[in-house]
Amino acid sequence: MSAKKEPRTQLRVGRLMKAHGLKGGIKLELYTDEPNERFVPGAVFSLQVPSGTQWHGKSIELTELRWYNSHAVGFFKGVTDRTEAESLIKAILWIDQDPAQLPSEDDAWYDHQLVGLVALRDGVNVGVVSRVDHLPAQDLLAIETDSGEVLVPFVKAIVPAVDIAAGTVTITPPNGLFEELPDEDSDADPAEPAATATAAADDDSDDSDADRDRIA
């Protein structure tokens, strides 16, 4: 289950993992089942990198894709040495996609299909999907509720169903994600420990009087 980020209707197709060799090669983690169609010479990818870095807001053009021991390694225009390659590590690659073409993978949707869906928990409306956050580990659905925003991991175990036609997304969040769990000690009577201490003090007092009587 995944979401497809689309600032201009785009697909997330890969991530740059580590420099390979001395001539600018970069090992790729592929997020597509069609690498031979997506990663062709001349393909241009938008880069998702932290703001303030030299690659922020830029694109990069693939010149060649090679395979080494079943690992994809990309070579890009203008990246000619290891130092330049290392400056791109952890960048996520996005590619423009025809907005009329739906994702071919099962359990995959574009952002624009998910935003605005009503989130149902046990059949009850708990909020509306306001955006999709794409992180390296997983996607998150930001759900706007009456009490604020809740970030829900977009995985099958927590989001078992997406019904675009009905305009809903079914969620089964763990306890505590949408509400605060009560403190385990909240039911305890705060006065009880003091009362117990007082009783213990009384018992000690009785024993002391008895001891004094025996000494006398």
Structural class of the secondary elements? Answer: alpha+beta
Q: How would you characterize the largest beta sheet?
A: 6 strands, antiparallel, barrel
Tally the helices: what do you get? 4
Low-pLDDT ranges: 190-216
At the fourth level of CATH, the homologous superfamily of the largest domain is RimM
| C-alpha geometry | elongated
**Overall strand count:** 14
CATH topology of the largest domain: Elongation Factor Tu (Ef-tu), domain 3
Q: Roughly how much helix do the residues carry, as a percent range?
A: 10-25%
Reported CATH architecture of the largest domain: Beta Barrel
Q: What's the level 1 CATH class of the largest domain?
A: Mainly Beta
Instruction: Bin the strand percentage.
Output: 35-45%
Distance between the termini: 84 Å
* Order of the strands making up the biggest sheet: 2-3-6-5-4-7
Over all CA atoms, what is the radius of gyration?
29 Å
**Overall domain count:** 2
Q: How are helices and strands ordered from N to C?
A: EEEHEEEHEEHEEEEEEH
Mean pLDDT score: 79
Tell me what you see in this structure:
It is a single chain. The chain is α+β, with helices and mostly antiparallel strands and 216 residues long. Residues 190-216 have low confidence and may be disordered. It folds into two domains: 2-96, Elongation Factor Tu (Ef-tu), domain 3 (Beta Barrel), CATH 2.40.30; 108-170, PRC-barrel domain (SH3 type barrels), CATH 2.30.30.240. A hairpin with a 4-residue loop joins strand 10 (124-134) and strand 11. Helices cover 18% and strands 38% of the residues. It has a six-stranded antiparallel β-barrel. A six-stranded mixed sheet has the order 12-11-10-9-14-13, with no helix packed on it. Strands 1-8 form a two-stranded parallel ribbon. The protein has helices spanning 35-38, 82-86, 111-114, 191-215; strands spanning 2-4, 10-20, 25-30, 44-48, 59-68, 71-76, 92-96, 108-110, 118-121, 124-134, 139-145, 148-153, 161-163, 168-170. The longest helix has 25 residues, at 191-215. The N and C termini lie far apart (84 Å).
